[in-house]
Amino acid sequence: MSVSDTLPKESVLNTYYSPRDYLDVFSVSLEGRPDLQEADMRVLADHMLMADIGWMNALLSLRDKVVKPLGLKTTDDLALEQSDTPVAERQPGDRIGFFRIFRVNENEIVLGEDDWHQDFRLSVFRRQGTRPRVYASTCCKRHNLFGHAYLALILPFHKKIASAVLDKAVAQKMSSAA
Q: Is 176 part of any domain?
């Protein structure tokens, strides 16, 4: 079961985050999941982000309907930029789901999007060893009053989604297509 946590000091998200930014971190144990412990980070991120959670999908659809008239990017807009490149071969600039890859290494991938109201980054960081864990950290840089209001509005949903995605990813078998 996922828990609220702190950003691992080894995470590259530490170089992006500043004290005025919003940051949250959730983590879950990877014990008993050698497939997730050894997976390429792009494949692990894809496995997590493609979790089929009905209520989450309904919330994203509602969000898209509300924000489209405001000029915010929707998940459909971002999905149009999806690459046909196999997930494990995607590089910075490519997408996993509707998130752009900014950086990837052996144990971390940083995804996100920049928009007029805020920029955000999602780090999926994996700690290997005797107590393996995966951390999902979100950092938001708000640019204006709308960015602050938007984040305040979605935050309760974001926290539930982040936790549910981690739990579902660890409980669910990885797709052979990943």
A: no
The b-or-e profile of 51-67 (16+ CB within 10 A means b, else e) is: beeeebeebbeebeeeb
Number of domains into which the chain is organized: 1
Assigned token pair, 54: 């009905």
Pull the structure tokens for residue 115.
Answer: 């928009």
Nearby residues of 123 by Cβ (< 8 Å), 6 or more positions away: 7, 11, 12, 13, 108, 109, 110, 111, 135, 136, 137, 138, 139
Question: Which structural domain, as residue segments, surrounds residue 85?
Answer: 3-171
Band of the pLDDT at 49, cuts 50, 70, 90?
confident
Q: Is residue 9 part of a domain?
A: yes
Instruction: Kindly give the pairing relationship between strand 108-114 and strand 133-142.
Output: unpaired
pLDDT digits (tens, 9 = 90+) for 92-138: 999 887 789 999 999 999 999 998 899 999 999 999 999 999 999 99
What's the token pair of residue 110? 């940083």
Residue 125 lies in a domain: yes
Query: For residue 92, which of 45, 48, 52, 47 has the smallest C-alpha distance?
Result: 45
CA–CA dist 72, 85 (Å, integer): 26
Residue 178 falls inside a structural domain: no
Structure tokens at 145: 């009053």
